[in-house]
Amino acid sequence: MYIFTERSFDDEAMGALASDLNHLSIGFCLVFIYLAFTVSKFSCIEQKGFLAIAGLLSIGMAIVFTYGIGFATGIMFGPIHQITPFMLLGIGVDDMFVMMEAVRQLSPEERALCVEERIGLALKHARVSITVTSITDIVAFAIGGSTVIPSLSTFCVYAAIDVLALYILQATFFVACVTLDEQRNDARRNACCICVKHDVKYKPGKYIDFSIQHEFMRRYWGPFVTKIPVKAGIIIIAVGLSSLIIWSFLQIKKDFDPSMYLPSDSYSQKFVNADRKYFPDDGAFVKLYCGTPDLFSQLLYFLTTDNGRVYWPFLRFDKLQNQRKFWRHL
């Protein structure tokens, strides 16, 4: 037996949202591990775990801010809007990495300056690129918000607010956290337990500046991609992919299927698949109301009171309310 009710689509969409929250949590954890190992050094002082948490917190605050503004102003939220947190996670991590790497790449002479000047030098290089990309994203999404398709328009509005909120939070909250981390570093306090202060005799190991990513690029990837056969192969692959993209673009067909928003293992999706299999051409939806009370004998009572919402929560009384005048004249 396959079932589908009027509220099934909304219920399944909310269930998919809860499932996406689990995936988003896993994504935050993976990004934290990546940042902690990428921008940190092998030293008790120069670990950046808490700074990575602060950056992820700024992304979370941007998501909450956007949802709060959207829900407060009544902007429609649908299944397609569930991908905005994942999009914001990618943009936010990129901005965090640029900022933290700019501080890390300061020269010994620049690191001898005070914290304020060091942060200013890092911002001079990092925030320019972050500002350009953020403004580009905001303008692109703002233009997309003018489309006549409601779901796409509201998605672009949410995305534009997301990017703007993230830019403001990373330019204020995250920069403040980077400044505090640099002050902790100058005070030689432990990165994991700031109440522990290392004396001047503490010296990190010889691998303090070792980076797996940098070493891989320098020793293996750089020499590999500069070989002539590899260069020729890259050009051939690029031309082939470009041709495939152009061909695929010409094959695009306009189509809209609301069932694509349903999870593949949901009961609603199984109903849709069965309906298309057994009734590919003609198929009528049958509405069946079950319950102890007699709906038609007590319909006027339920239309004039709120008790119907208590006894029959599965009914859509907003549609019945529109028929109140009709039933009163019977």
From TrEMBL:
<feature type="transmembrane region" description="Helical">
    <location>
        <begin position="155"/>
        <end position="180"/>
    </location>
</feature>
<dbReference type="InterPro" id="IPR000731">
    <property type="entry name" value="SSD"/>
</dbReference>
<feature type="transmembrane region" description="Helical">
    <location>
        <begin position="228"/>
        <end position="250"/>
    </location>
</feature>
<dbReference type="InterPro" id="IPR053958">
    <property type="entry name" value="HMGCR/SNAP/NPC1-like_SSD"/>
</dbReference>
<keyword id="KW-0472">Membrane</keyword>
<feature type="transmembrane region" description="Helical">
    <location>
        <begin position="128"/>
        <end position="149"/>
    </location>
</feature>
<comment type="similarity">
    <text>Belongs to the patched family.</text>
</comment>
<keyword id="KW-1133">Transmembrane helix</keyword>
<dbReference type="GO" id="GO:0016020">
    <property type="term" value="C:membrane"/>
</dbReference>
<feature type="transmembrane region" description="Helical">
    <location>
        <begin position="49"/>
        <end position="77"/>
    </location>
</feature>
<dbReference type="InterPro" id="IPR051697">
    <property type="entry name" value="Patched_domain-protein"/>
</dbReference>
<feature type="transmembrane region" description="Helical">
    <location>
        <begin position="20"/>
        <end position="37"/>
    </location>
</feature>
<feature type="domain" description="SSD">
    <location>
        <begin position="20"/>
        <end position="180"/>
    </location>
</feature>
<protein>
    <recommendedName>
        <fullName>SSD domain-containing protein</fullName>
    </recommendedName>
</protein>
<dbReference type="Pfam" id="PF12349">
    <property type="entry name" value="Sterol-sensing"/>
</dbReference>
<keyword id="KW-0812">Transmembrane</keyword>
